[in-house]
Every structure is written in C-alpha cells, then in structure tokens.
Amino acid sequence: MQSHNKCSVCSEDSFGKHYGINTCMGCKSFFIRSTKRTVTYSKCPFNQNCYSTVVSHYKCRECRFKKCLEVGMNMENKQITGWEIWKELESPHTQINSLLRILSHVDLKIEKLRASTFNPIIYPGLQEMISDSSKSYLGKTFEPMPGWPLTKSKTVEMNKKLNERRVDIEVRKEFQVEQSEFIDSKEFNVKEWIIFDSLMVIEYAKTFPFFYKLLERDKCVLIRETHYMISLITSNFQSYLNKKDALQTPDGFFYDGNLTTGQVARFSLGPVMAYVLTTKANMRPTKTDLEMVMAADLPDDIPLATLGFLTMEPYSRNKFTKEEYLMMKAFTFCNPVDNLSPFGKQIVQKEQQKYAIIILNHCLTIRNDPSRFITIIEHVNFLSRSQKKYKDFITFMKTVAKSRASNSRRELEDQLFSY
C-alpha cells in the first residue's frame, strides 16, 4: 500500500496532492506535459515492465505516463501542494515553520545530488534542461562521490583531464559512437562546479509551483538572472557551516582567503582572471588589461581576499542561521527582473512579496530584531553585485581568450550569460 507521504507514481517523497493523487513535483510536471501536449511516446524498451523490481531507477516515458493514469491522476481534480498549505494557516510562527520544512526538504535533496556521483558527460541546452523532468530525486539513486575531499592540485589536474575527455566524447558522438550518459566516478571524481551548480539551480527552480506558470521564455530569463546568485549563496553557506574562511566546493577545493594571484595562476585558473578580478573589481575590464598582463610580469602577492564574494566574512559577521539561509535563497530566486514579460513579472513579484513577508515575520517574531530584515535584504543586494562582476568577467574572457572548454559547456555558458 502506497504511503501518503510517498509519490504514488515513483515512490519518492510526496509534495502534496496533485490532480487527485499524492505525487512529487517531478511526476506532477511530467503529467502536465504529457496531457497538455500532443505527444506519442516511443515503445517501452523493457516490454512495459519498467515498474517491476528487476528494472533500475530508469522508467521510460510510456510506462511513467501509464502509471500516472493507473494511480488515478486526473487533470480535472484540484491540486493542493505542500507549498500552498501554509497559506491556510493563521499563525505567522506556524507559517514560517511550515514553509521552512518544505524549503529544508528541497535543500537536502539538492545537496545530496551535488555530493553524489551524478555527473552528466554532455550538458544539454538551457531550454532542454528546463523542459526535462526533475532530477532532484537522483540524489538517493546515485552513490556519494568517492575520494572527497581532494587536494587543490588534484582537483585542477582532474578537471583538465575531464574537460579533454568531454571534448573527445563530443567528437565520438558526432560519429554516432555509443557513449555512457554519465562520467565514471572511478575515473573522474570531480565536477565542473560553475556549470554543474547551474544545473542544480534549474532543479531547485522546478520545486517551485509558480515556475510552471511562467512562459518558456520567462523561465529562461529567471534562470539567467539568478543562477549565479543561487549557486553562490549555496556554496558560501555550506562553506560557512564547514567553518571555512573562503568559498569551498563539495569536493574539498576551497579558495583560501590568503591565496595570491601567483598561486592562482599556478593552479591554472589563469593570470588574466587573477589580475582582472583583484585589480579591476569595481570596473569593467578591457582588452588593454589582457595586453598589459601578457606584456608584463604578473604581481605575485595580491591576496584573493580582495574578491569579497569569495570570503565568508559576511556570513560569520551576520551569523546567518540555516533558516535565514533557506528563506534568503528563495527570496533571491524570486527576482522580478525587468527582462521578464509583464505576465511573468507579476507572478514572480507576488512570490517575492510572499517571502519578504515571511522573512519579516521571522525577524519580528523569532529573532525579535526588525533590523535583521535589512541585513538579509542587503546581503541579497551583495549577491546581485557579485553576479554582475562575474558576468562582466565572463564577457571579457569570451572576447579576448579562446576557450578550451567542451562545446556543450561553451554553448550552455553562452545561454546562461546572454543577458
């Protein structure tokens, strides 16, 4: 018998009742796509036996849709989600606790996926990643990544080899040579965090019901405008919890606040990045910067602590709690940017106002400190400024330096940073 806390389709954790049945957000969105679009799914490769105990976690779309109908999902039934239950509650304290339970559950699933062996070989385009079904449940399916934490030199060496392998795989795919879908963790136990965490932001976005109400264009716009801020606050807070002085990635590599530009260059992050980010932090770099770096010796003693967003100082100074981090992250994602359509902007603005009220109630009723609200909002503005610096640097590097990254990574970076 199916537990009321489990999805009736895939047995993952349920996020409330959708179309008459307890389901997760992934199966809910799959059912919506399957019923609202005219699609004919290809024949099941397992003889319509996907849901037997013999088959792995993979379920073909034909069997998945059939399962949705078998358990009783119906477009005519009103849906009640866990995200919407809190609206019915009167007590601000109860509202906060109810919403935090949902946000904490989502964050735990994303963190499990970040720390797992889930590591796609080829990244699809932004639109395809958004339209694809949710992968947040895979954190339970894939094992934890072995061998972490790694040393700095090992991380750089492995990333270089991994990139070369991705380029080789892309060539093989052009000749239709069969390839695995995921990186073998026994051979490469590293991830390209800038791109991988962008994928995690998309998975995070799919847990918000309002995201499915947006136009396809607005979904892409919202991801572009928030993905780096969400990635940054996620990595920063995890680093703060681990009592690090600077940003740390899950594989153990961290940007030591005492690291200098010369050391960065030797770790293959590039003398141009080291020079531009440490000396041009408040202005847009130009091609002259590159020419000057190539023509002169690079200063070897500029500390990376000058890159304010790489340090944990704001977190240790403000002592952000896990609850504040979760609410701040959701508030940051619900960003009604100007590039959204009027329809999309109205939806996102309503969501941001909801989280602003929740944060304010938290500051008033739990922290008993109204000024705390200003502190949290100021930190969100800090994240926005950090994203702008990084966007300027990416634009600069694309115009003056030839990328050695794989085609799929370059194309995804183009889509993510095409503001």
Write the SSE topology.
Elements: E1 16-18, E2 21-22, H1 25-36, H2 61-70, E3 80-81, H3 82-85, H4 92-114, H5 126-131, H6 152-174, H7 193-205, H8 216-241, H9 261-266, H10 271-279, H11 287-295, H12 313-318, H13 322-333, H14 342-366, H15 371-400, H16 407-416
Antiparallel strand pairs: 1-2, 1-3
Helix pairs in contact: 4-7, 4-13, 4-14, 7-8, 8-13, 8-15, 10-11, 13-14
Provide the CATH architecture of the largest domain.
Orthogonal Bundle
What is the residue-averaged pLDDT? 75
Major sheet description: 3 strands, antiparallel
Question: Which strand-content bin applies to the residues?
Answer: under 5%
Strands side by side in the biggest sheet: 2-1-3
Question: Pairing-aware structural class of the strands and helices?
Answer: mainly alpha
Helix content class: 40-55%
Domain Nuclear receptor: 4-80
Protein name: Nuclear receptor domain-containing protein
InterPro entries: NHR-like_dom_sf (IPR035500), Nucl_hrmn_rcpt_lig-bd (IPR000536), Znf_hrmn_rcpt (IPR001628), Znf_NHR/GATA (IPR013088)
Family: Belongs to the nuclear hormone receptor family.
Protein model, in words:
The model is unreliable at 260-285 and 289-309 (pLDDT under 50). The chain has three domains: 1-78, Erythroid Transcription Factor GATA-1, subunit A (Erythroid Transcription Factor GATA-1, Chain A, 2-Layer Sandwich), CATH 3.30.50; 83-254 and 310-416, Retinoid X Receptor; 261-306, no CATH class. It is built from 16 helices and three strands. The chain is globular, with a radius of gyration of 23 Å. With 419 residues, the protein is mostly helical. Helix 4 runs antiparallel to helix 7 (193-205) and helix 10 crosses helix 11. It has a three-stranded antiparallel sheet with strand order 2-1-3. The chain is 53% helix and 2% strand. Strand 1 and strand 2 (21-22) form a beta hairpin.
